[in-house]
Design brief:
185 residues; alpha/beta; seven-stranded mixed β-sheet; 5 helices
Length: 185
């Protein structure tokens, strides 16, 4: 892995009927302190009418499942690479969400620390195709959720039931379509 690591500061959600088939996408605000070239990429891409190219690859460290990483190799309009650090215990749902909807918005904290502060400022949509597989993910996430539900007093089969209910509720939210209001004019 390269040493350009990017912390996720906030995760919001945004959806529009004309973007990504109307799916509710994660809106991720990142700290670009260690990778100003990623911030430049976001700024330039917003001003350039050509599409950018990005290759996304999931990763993790063997014997340490506390974080997973999403490597983003940007090819144009500026070539650069960074790794989003995703702490499994607190933001594992983001990995599930990205894999479920196959993408996310990315914005630098230069424009605010959350989606509502940066709305209307440069942000890019990153598509993460279903071909960007992550075979060990389900095992990593289940272990994290099991630990969480055990700490809440769940035992045995109740843990598995709680995990399934939790995941089902997430997907219900993520695949809710935005309401389109039409005027009668």
């Amino acid at each position: 892995m390269s040493n350009k690591m990017t912390q996720i500061l906030q995760v919001g959600a945004i959806g529009h009927p004309d973007v990504s088939d109307g799916r509710l996408l994660p809106y991720i605000t990142i700290d670009c302190t260690n990778c100003p070239d990623v911030e430049n990429f976001i700024d330039v891409h917003g001003d350039v009418p050509v599409p950018g190219d990005v290759i996304s690859t999931w990763g993790w460290k063997y014997f340490n499942n506390s974080n997973v990483y999403l490597r983003l190799d940007f090819e144009r309009p500026i070539a650069t690479t960074t790794h989003l650090i995703i702490p499994v215990a607190t933001k594992g749902y983001v990995v599930e969400w990205i894999m479920a909807v196959r993408g996310f918005y990315l914005q630098s904290s230069k424009y605010g620390n959350c989606a509502s502060e940066g709305f209307g400022k440069p942000a890019i949509i990153i598509e993460v195709p279903s071909g960007a597989t992550f075979p060990p993910w389900q095992k990593i996430y289940k272990k994290s959720l099991t630990k969480r539900f055990k700490s809440q007093g769940f035992k045995g089969k109740a843990i598995d039931d709680a995990i399934e209910a939790y995941k089902a509720r997430q997907k219900e939210i993520w695949f809710r379509r935005p309401i389109v209001h039409h005027s009668g004019v």
